[in-house]
What does this fold into?
Amino acid sequence: MGWIYLLLAGLAEMGFVSLLKQTQGFSNPFATVGFLGCAGLSFWLLTKAADSIPVTIAYPVWVGIGAVGALLIGALLYGESMTLTKLLFSVLLIGSIVGLKFSS
It folds into this structure.
């Protein structure tokens, strides 16, 4: 169950990352509430995951999911460039996340 919590925590992190720009410095109340809700949910799910997964594994996996998610969100929603270098390092990051999962 811990890995499900961790995956959901990573997806919630992607949610607050996608809303970060839309908060406009926390002046947009709807985006700010969504951001804070996703952030709170993400951290709560991370703590639930850490009940059964060592934090030395859970935290880097959570960060990795968020980092790859941020790259995808930036490219898909905000038209940011997806260079070959970004793609390469994203693949390496995903490989590292999978490696951490299998090492625990």
Q: What stands out?
A: The chain is about 80% helix and 0% strand. The CA atoms of residues 14 and 69 lie 5 Å apart.
